[in-house]
Amino acid sequence: MISSSKDPWRVSLHGGHSNAYCDHASSTLEEMIEAAIAAGYHTFGVTEHAPRLDARFLYPEEIALGWDVARIAANFERYAVDVHAIADRFENRITILRGFETESAPAARYLDIMRDYRTRYPFDYMVGSIHYVDDFHIDGRMEGFERAVVHFGSFEALATRYYRVVAEMVDALQPQVVGHLDLIRKNAPAGAVLDSPAIREAVGAALESIRRHDAILDINTAGYRKGLGSPYPQPWIIREAHAMGIGLCFGDDSHAVHDVGAGLESARLYLLDNGVSTISVFRRAGGGIVRYTAPLT
Ligand SMILES: [Zn+2]
Ligand SMILES: [Zn+2]
User: What is the 42 CA–ligand 2 centroid distance (Å)?
Assistant: First the structure.
């Protein structure tokens, strides 16, 4: 029986990346779960990255490790099996939700690839994230991001296209959670306008897709770690989503034990400051997951 004394808002639906499956994570999955218990979480969603099934999208760090597409695919498929056994071992100490985070490259095939993983493995849920826009990596090195700005013609054009791709992904895959909605601001040039009328319109369309499919918006504390001063997404997006009735939940996007739970208390205050007093959470029930609402105070 899981202790009922834990704060109902101590939950993360996005994170738990671990080093047996992900090149840029640094702790084992067991260590991540122990850290989640120590952080006071009652529920911890583990959402390893789906692989990019094309050698053009291997990270330089993966290539340096000697990894290829077959290796990252095998890592993920091993994760998809292991996560169930590992979660079961912890089940009387913490609720572990077993998910994965989508990858949006290669652009021409990623929707089919993600659907295939979703149907082939018994994951509890999926976090829909966009890290690549039309095969340009917007979450990696600055050179890649700058190439994307040049390709699209301006930061505004790239950002607008990014949010359109988010909306398409949500409509096509219907993920239960949408990850770091305004990730495009991570590498934005200093002084870039993040909320021009065109960008706001594209964000509005993405939020409309999220609302239509009843997905939960990830309040992602990696924004603090990246020096952005707030979680993803920005306050105006939070307020707009909340006004539309979209549910919100925390994600620590942890890739190491020291990320687990980091920024959660600040993110709770951030939501309260923006008029949000509850979050949407999942619990296990009847072999699946059921959504419920938990108070922030
Ligand atoms: Zn990662
Ligand atoms: Zn992500």
Answer: 22
pTM of the model: 0.97
Residue 153 Cα to ligand 2 middle (Å):
25
* Number of domains, the chain: 1
Q: Would residue 6 count as lying in a domain? A: no
The answer to whether residues 179 and 101 touch, using CB atoms and an 8 Å cutoff, is yes
Q: Residue 132 maps to which CATH number?
A: 3.20.20.140
Between CA 65 and CA 265 the distance in angstroms is: 36
Range of the domain at 218: 11-295
Ligand in nearest proximity to the CA of 49? 1
Domain assignment present for 46: yes
Q: What percentage of residues in the chain have a pLDDT greater than 90?
A: 97
Distance in angstroms (rounded) separating the CA atoms of residues 90 and 251:
20
Query: Ligand 1 centroid vs 58 CA: distance in angstroms?
Result: 13
